[in-house]
Specification:
Radius of gyration: 27 Å
Helix content: 55-70%
Number of strands: 7
Shape: elongated
Largest sheet: 7 strands, antiparallel
Number of helices: 9
Number of domains: 2
Order of helices and strands: HHHHEEEEEEEHHHHH
Structural class: alpha+beta
Length: 381
């Protein structure tokens, strides 16, 4: 690698790193606000735990930030070089566009390999570890999730309101239990009570004093023509407040896209070996296709890093702009187009006969073909 290659490589690398950092922040911010800000402000864990949990979000954010970042970095760097007539000077010295693009393409390959590792190993591990550590932090003092004079909707299937809180003792308690359609199927009102954490079921178990209960029809809880069953008792049994939703997701029911590569392949082999019942053939085909889509998408996002680097070279030279906003806009437009095509293919997951796992590569094929065509156009000028 000669001096010019090192200059272009370093310039693009630094700009790409800044762009990836910016986009990673944008991707990570909603997760930080949704999952971490409330327990942090409630004193559920300290700053050290908060910083560590934010660090575990970064690999997931990098999965989507890396393709956008490298395209933005290439457009910004080559656009500036072209606007300053440095590209023209290189070509006048006998340096072809392909030679100019060589360090950028090398960087694209290296970043694609890094993205492959992040997508297959680092991000799934970090995602699982994030929810495991978040759950451990909240379980250390589960009653801190209860804020007086606040409607707490973070629980799964339950809305809770507490007027006063004195340690584990609660007063003026209102609890609404919801069905799968978020309809109230039971209302509990109590003068006082307490909540105890049951680790085996990951639930808060309430014990109410002077409680009144209204139980509505299980089939149609919104049918108010039927009088609700409203027994009164000093204590109310059978009520549990599940904490799975508060912790984000239960690790036992974690999504398949959280699995690392070896676990995905093992699950694929397990599904492939199963012989479904005649009435379950379609369902089994959809399950197999869903796993195949997850695996292909991880490879597809990794290749997208190189595809964006490839298409960014001729576009950066052709646009010839030093304005950051114009190049950022062009990068975002291309990235949005890529992800829209990817999402459109993902919608075919219920039609495994159309092979959406193979169609998932279509956006990358189109972008690489467009990049090669733009290269040929510029090289002839």
């Amino acid at each position: 690698m000669n001096l010019l290659d090192r200059h272009i490589f370093t310039s693009v690398l630094l700009t790409c790193a800044a762009a990836v950092g910016l986009f990673a922040f944008v991707v990570a911010l909603p997760n930080v606000v949704k999952d971490l800000l409330t327990p942090l402000l409630a004193g559920q864990f300290g700053i050290g735990t908060f910083i560590r949990l934010v660090g575990l979000i970064i690999p997931f954010a990098v999965t989507y930030a890396l393709p956008m970042g490298i395209l933005t970095g290439v457009l910004l760097t080559l656009g500036r070089l072209s606007a300053d007539s440095e590209i023209t000077a290189m070509r006048a010295s006998g340096i072809s566009v392909l030679q100019t693009a060589r360090p950028v393409l090398v960087l694209g390959v290296l970043c694609a390999l890094a993205a492959l590792y992040v997508n297959l190993e680092s991000a799934p591990w970090a995602r699982t570890q994030f929810y495991r550590e978040l759950a451990a932090a909240v379980r250390a003092n589960p009653l801190r999730v209860i804020e007086p004079k606040t409607f707490i909707r973070s629980f799964s299937g339950t809305v809770l309101y507490v007027g006063e809180k004195d340690g584990a003792i609660l007063r003026d308690i209102w609890l609404w239990e919801l069905d799968d359609q978020s309809r109230v199927r039971r209302l509990v009102r109590a003068e006082a009570g307490r909540l105890d954490y049951e680790e085996a079921t990951n639930s808060l178990i309430p014990t109410f004093v002077n409680a009144k209960t209204e139980e509505r029809d299980a089939e149609n809880p919104e049918d108010f023509s039927k009088s609700p069953n409203a027994p009164s008792a000093r204590t109310t049994a059978g009520v549990r407040i599940a904490l799975d939703k508060y912790f984000g997701r239960s690790l036992e029911r974690r999504k398949d896209d959280w699995l690392p590569y070896d676990a995905l392949r093992a699950k694929q082999a397990q599904l492939a070996a199963e012989v479904p019942a005649p009435d379950k053939v379609g369902e089994m085909a959809r399950k197999r296709m869903e796993l195949s889509l997850i695996l292909h998408e991880k490879f597809n996002l990794s290749l997208a890093v190189f595809a964006f680097a490839l298409i960014g070279v001729p576009l950066g030279i052709k646009v010839s702009r030093r304005e950051t906003s114009a190049n950022l806009g062009l990068a975002l437009l291309l990235v949005v187009g890529f992800y829209l095509l990817t999402v459109a293919v993902r919608w075919l997951d219920r039609r495994p006969e159309l092979r959406p796992d193979l169609l998932l590569w279509l956006p990358n094929v189109l972008f690489i073909a467009l990049g090669v065509w733009l290269f040929s156009r510029i090289d002839r000028k």
